[in-house]
Structure formats: C-alpha cells, structure tokens
Amino acid sequence: MKSMPLGGTGIEIGQFVFGAGSIGGVGGAPQTRGLGITEEQGFARLDEAYELGIRVVDTADVYAQGDSEVAVGRWLSQREPSDVLVQTKFGGVARDGKPASDLSGAHLRRQLAQSIERLGRVDLYLSHVPDPDTPPEETLTAFAEAREAGLIRAFGVCNVDAGLLEALLKTAADAGLPRPEFVQNGFSLLNRADEPELLPLVRSEGLGYLAFSPLAGGVLSERYLDGAAPQPGSRIAVAGDQFYPGAHTEENLARVTRLRELARRREVSVAGLALAWLSAHPAVTAPIVSPSSETQWQAVREALSFELDAESAAEISELFG
C-alpha cells in the first residue's frame, strides 16, 4: 500500500483508513448501540485491516457510547502494533436528549484524557462536530496545548463546510496558533457537497482530507440493485435516514445500475470502482472503510490495484454529477 502525506502534519498514511465506528454499535447514536459488530468480530476486522496494510484506525469517544474506543484499545494492547496510528474525535454530546457539541477547552482536556485511558494513546485528534457556542480560538488553543504536551501528534476537524474551515484557518493565523492540518468529512459519488468549495480550499491550503461513508452505507455496491431491499441489521435499515439521508432512492439506484455496467467492462465490482474513483480524487488523502465481509474487503483490494484513468474518472463523475 502506497503512503502519502496527511496534509502538513509530517505524518504519512496509507491509501485507506479503517473505521471502527461499528464496533459495539453504529456511530454515536444511543439508539444504534449494540447494532454493529461485537468486540470479537471487531478484532477480526482490525486484524484483516492490518494484514492488508492499513495503519490508521479511526474511532470517536461517542461511538457505541465509548465501547468502540474500549475495544480498539484492547486490540492495541493485545496485538501491540507499533506502526498503527490511533485517531479519535471529541465534541459530540447530548443536551436534553438531543445531539449537540462541546468544543470547549475543558471538554477537550477531559475527553482526551478519557480517550487515552481507553486507547492507550491518541495520535490524531479531531473535533467531531462544529460548536457554535465555543470561540474557535479556545478550541485551537486546547489542541495546541495537547500537542505541545505530547498527548497528540496532530489535529484536524470533522464535519465542516468551507466557510467554517476558512474561518478556523484565519483564526489560527491571526492568533499565532497551530492550524488544523486535515479534514474528515462525508464524501462519495452520492455525496459530493464538498466539491464546489471545500475541496478546492483543502487543496490550496495543502490540507489532508479523509472521506467517511465512501460507499454511502452500501448503496454504492450491488447490494440494493435489482429490487433487493435493505436487510435487517444493514446500515441502511438501521440508520439510513440518520447517516445516509437521500442515498437509498430509485434515482440513485438507477445511477448505480449504470455504474455496474462500467464496472463489468473493467472487470471490477461496483464498490471497487466507487472506491477507486474516490482514491483517485486529487483532493482525497484516504477514504475511511469498514468492511465486514470478504466481498467488502475484495472491493478495497480492487481499489488498491485498479488504475483509474482520467477519462474513466470523468465518465463516472458525469454519471453522478
């Protein structure tokens, strides 16, 4: 697996990141806790990711109400892989039973200490969701202090738009503070909201970009074609409206059917071609994947070995434009 720089962090990562958000649950919603994979299954997936050459594991303090971090920490303790980078996120909270955010310095320090206790270490640390109530300078200062103390190696931001990212970069520059060096957002053939403004900003500033939900909950595969309905326990059935709004539609399935024709001509799977397109995107450092079957791992292998030429990439982009 080839390595590439993660923005200006001075850290190199491989072509894919493993997402551990389904270990013990699906994401951070309380109603999806326990609907993901077990810790034992999670260990198997982490082993498979490592064997393939993936060296970054992504989680968050709220995934499965903390069970994801605990499981990843146990895997790290048992396997002792010295070359794995541990990435987690903070800031997601609940207020009055509703999702909210807290990016205050006090919350960062408290959650980082808890994540280090669970995981053993944190290399890459991100704010999970924007917080309209905390001054950006406060969050950036807390990130800088954590890095200076050796608690983290680099930091980034998650779920931001171009306006917010630009404001954060300006705040850091004006205050003489370190800036976030990478972004983690949802991006796929079915979710290209970042293309017009955010990705050009990422490229011009030399930032890294990690893409989560690269297959839109499995819609960018053969799984839901030819009239196949979402199976109980699948990502679309469990949390489709919450995590993949607007993905599982007749219009999108028709596009994926046409993508299947392109994939067959190239002798790869739909998922493999979708991941290859994402990996070839000039602004994307690495997609975040969470395979749970051999078929899904095969799609990652296809993306690693398949060279997508510019003409094919443009044809696929136009299909989903």
TrEMBL record:
Taxonomic lineage of the native organism: Bacteria, Bacillati, Actinomycetota, Actinomycetes, Pseudonocardiales
Domain NADP-dependent oxidoreductase span(s) in chain numbering: 27-319
This protein's record includes keyword Oxidoreductase: yes
InterPro entries the record matches: AKR_Detox_Biosynth, NAD(P)_OxRdtase_dom_sf, NADP_OxRdtase_dom
One Pfam family per UniProt: Aldo_ket_red
Any one GO molecular-function label of the UniProt entry: oxidoreductase activity
PANTHER family xref list: NAD(P)-LINKED OXIDOREDUCTASE SUPERFAMILY PROTEIN, NADH-SPECIFIC METHYLGLYOXAL REDUCTASE-RELATED
Keyword Oxidoreductase tagged: yes
Origin species: Amycolatopsis jiangsuensis
Annotated GO CC locations: cytosol
Domain of life: Bacteria
Record keywords, A-Z: Oxidoreductase
SUPFAM superfamilies, per database record: NAD(P)-linked oxidoreductase
Protein name: Aryl-alcohol dehydrogenase-like predicted oxidoreductase
Gene3D superfamilies attached to this UniProt entry: NADP-dependent oxidoreductase domain
